[in-house]
């Protein structure tokens, strides 16, 4: 469709005229103009809602909201076209079969071997070995070999050695969806562990000997401690309500030596509504400070983030400081339990704060234990009530920790944002389906590619320049502050206003430091070369009389090559280099805003290079092709000034 | 008056000092004329705390049996608690502190007694003279002149002795204009934008009154700043409503009919007690130690602090936009032209002028646009967030300005030569200092107090390499362009470095800062090494060649 206008959310005056294309996988908007760079690509799987608004004199507005928090406003001249697009998008955004998803058509041009290699990057058996299991206390159980006991669990499950198959099966029958207690994290230093399960089917009085033996076995697998924490991550009221349905929570009297604890994290429906409310605040056009803060407070979002963090902190403390094992569950043990276990693991083990370790963590606590990615993130058309930002909240918890511990994580914010993006993109097979069983049946590993390999390949873009493996902050357990906690958790505009570049700091400290570090590395190399050359030259001067001509030749040649090298490192080059990084923003804020719509760099998911480098490059290009003095165009990247312009016009 | 008269108990032993995030320390408390000194006796880590009495905003006392407790709340927002054994000692100390921290006379303040322990390389009182500023101006334009009309502070008591005005306007006309402006603050040059020759002027409100008085000279003066055929903008920092109400008291605004080449824009920047209330509420919310974050955001919202930040920044961006993008000259004023006006003119310069983003340039900006421009520091900064006395003229105007600068710095972390610490240091010294720089309300008062002769300038201390290195931003790369900050609520944040400074442990953030510095330092060292080697090699090669030629 031609002559479509893409509106800038922040200022209605600046609309871009262009052509809209619908392909099998993407919505593409190409702006008219000499340079074909200005393209906006949106994957169908990212579309969360489409809204057709009342037709106006200028055309028919179409509002597309995306799961990665992009909001696109189009105005289509013909009402009929608009309707067609609307109908097509509704269909395209809600595929009914897995085969329709992008990952089955996405081909990053890797051969079979590379693909297999990619899937092997994260190996959970290796991970459990790293933790130190199997050992005297823990073993792999094959009880779930053919998903016979629990179809949402992995085939390989780690359980206490003393838990026989009889106990496991018995316990599984007493647990919601047969999700029996299994090992999530094991702490080598003190034998304390984190186990996970679903709620017991205790009702008002039911009990199960095998389940009681199972918990006993978990406690005994930690000989240093004489009790076990059982953490129910639900609000007490919810758990009690479940008893009426024959579910519920453990009765301390029936289980020997457990300490039972509620930690009130709300359910998926509350979380979905909370996010919805927060996004409404983010979408406000030129909100006042009060609108924004009120809206944020009312959404309750940060309160929920804090609840999840608090649960993780409680468990990490029990394991690291008290040396007590913890069994965590919620209702089905696949949402809140996954959040809490992974936050606790992240706090406990520095490995999970590395890039590789973080991939392992998501694979372990989320993918393998049957977090229902398909339902929660709406990959296939399904019940909208199943959708909830569960892993988004976990990812945000990590970001909040990164803000508090700037040197503790090997990866940067971009890494988190790109993972979030791909959980919804369906470009890679990792997060398809609701369980390992379904993924195996679909032969995901043979038919799609792994996100982890893709991220690993581009890992240079995801490094936190402040991270040093030997830094104090990197070591041991993280102890986040609990109180005063009022201002600990902040709004993450980098995520929720991700596509409104004008709102973000215009110069990135991370990028700047990464450029400096890169240059440092080059300097180190050059220093080595220069030293070598110097040594050679000194030697040659000593040997001068013996083989003068030959040596001379060599050093001359050498000199040439290094002078090339040095050219790349002259101070001038340095400043250029630096300019190209922060200047994705500096100053030309006004130019920047014209680049605001230029989001395809982040979005062009068909391009396997979903990396920030392309972003920066385009930023630089943008700056170079526009002189800072293109008068007339007002710096209006922010709402505040927009309203001033209104004053301008009316006065 | 002798300070000794006020100090009934100069010393108390076995005092316990409590601070957030530190274990309590036992030690000795001493009171001197200007300081409260606490020193711990422990050998292993002897520690001293020196607190200027003038930094104390309020004190509270409590008694449990014979153990007295004094809670001291400082203007820099720190709160400390002292447990003093002995009812009488405690009472004496409390009343002494109270008396010493509320001395009436400026000449009893510490700057008049302070003897510097450092070598003075450069006299800060002479570092930023108007003549130098004017010299810079004459190198780019000759349309302006330095007027000594206010030499004896006879025309405008809150202006400096010399001001920059359009060349075509003589002193006689200036005198008439001064009669037409509130507090005689006639329009003067604040900033000249080299890029396009546009200017920013500032003044106070015109005294039009209800019957629409006009002043031909005023109109002429303002129009003299316009290029032929160009228009200008008057940014009134009050809402239209407030400006209209001001007419009843003899004030007012420029009528369009009399200033046809000018468009007036009203922005609403709050003043006085509204700002002070806002600060008090904000600090209260920040000091709330409760464990739930239920109401944190609504408390932050209710304080309105960030709303003020947004309003001020927006007005400054607007002024900068008019100058740089619209190619128009701008006149900024509110009522007196000593508060919101200065916030706007100084922030606009930070946006427009790269020089103001350097350490020296920023100091010069503070001197020009705040000290010389007659911001009444002594009145505004007499009390801070913990004060009980609600004087009408106390207001965190300067702190809001610094906060706005911090917001821009946060958005452009590589474009400023100074760091956050520099801004925090200026905040501290504006409220309590051993230096005379921020004493008095204007140049006239400072000259009567003979501050340059009797006190030390803050700049003399700051501008030494030992101090400067603490305030340098390691990420700084000169950026010659105009920087446009975002004023969307998502982009504005609470300035934790000031407001949460004393109630958050900053270890991890400090470590990150150190890491950053060491990364950059290592890079620079390597560069130096590589360059040295390159030179050495080049020399050796030439030697070689020469030998060969021989």
UniProtKB/TrEMBL annotation, chain A:
Top-level taxonomic group: Eukaryota
Molecular function (Gene Ontology), one example: phosphatidylinositol-3-phosphate phosphatase activity
A Pfam family hit: Myotub-related
Domain Tyrosine specific protein phosphatases: 299-343
GO cellular component terms listed in the entry, alphabetical order: cytoplasm; endomembrane system
Positions of the Myotubularin phosphatase domain: 118-496
Coiled-coil zones: 513-540
Membrane topology listed for this record: Peripheral membrane protein
Residue positions binding substrate: 267-268, 330-336
A single GO BP: phosphatidylinositol dephosphorylation
PROSITE patterns found in the cross-reference section: PPASE_MYOTUBULARIN, TYR_PHOSPHATASE_1, TYR_PHOSPHATASE_2
Keywords: Coiled coil, Cytoplasm, Hydrolase, Lipid metabolism
Feature: compositional bias, Polar residues: 558-588
Family recorded in the similarity comment: Belongs to the protein-tyrosine phosphatase family. Non-receptor class myotubularin subfamily.
Designated name of the protein: MTMR7 protein
Protein's organism: Pedionomus torquatus
Lineage of source species: Eukaryota, Metazoa, Chordata, Craniata, Vertebrata
Annotated gene: Mtmr7
UniProtKB/TrEMBL annotation, chain B:
Keyword check for Acetylation: yes
InterPro entries in the record: Myotubularin, Myotubularin-like_Pase_dom, PH-GRAM_MTMR6-9, PH-like_dom_sf, Prot-tyrosine_phosphatase-like
Alphabetical GO biological process terms: negative regulation of autophagy; phosphatidylinositol dephosphorylation
GO cellular component labels: cytosol; endoplasmic reticulum; perinuclear region of cytoplasm; ruffle membrane
One Pfam family per UniProt: Myotub-related
Origin: domain of life: Eukaryota
A GO molecular-function descriptor: protein phosphatase binding
UniProt-annotated location(s): Cell projection, Ruffle membrane; Cytoplasm, Perinuclear region; Endoplasmic reticulum
Residues annotated as domain Myotubularin phosphatase: 124-499
Membrane topology type: Peripheral membrane protein
Entry keyword set: Acetylation, Cell membrane, Cell projection, Coiled coil, Cytoplasm, Endoplasmic reticulum, Membrane
Keyword Cell membrane: yes
Gene3D superfamilies registered for this protein in UniProt: Pleckstrin-homology domain (PH domain)/Phosphotyrosine-binding domain (PTB)
UniProt record similarity statement: Belongs to the protein-tyrosine phosphatase family. Non-receptor class myotubularin subfamily.
Protein name per Swiss-Prot or TrEMBL: Myotubularin-related protein 9
Organism of origin: Pedionomus torquatus (Plains-wanderer)
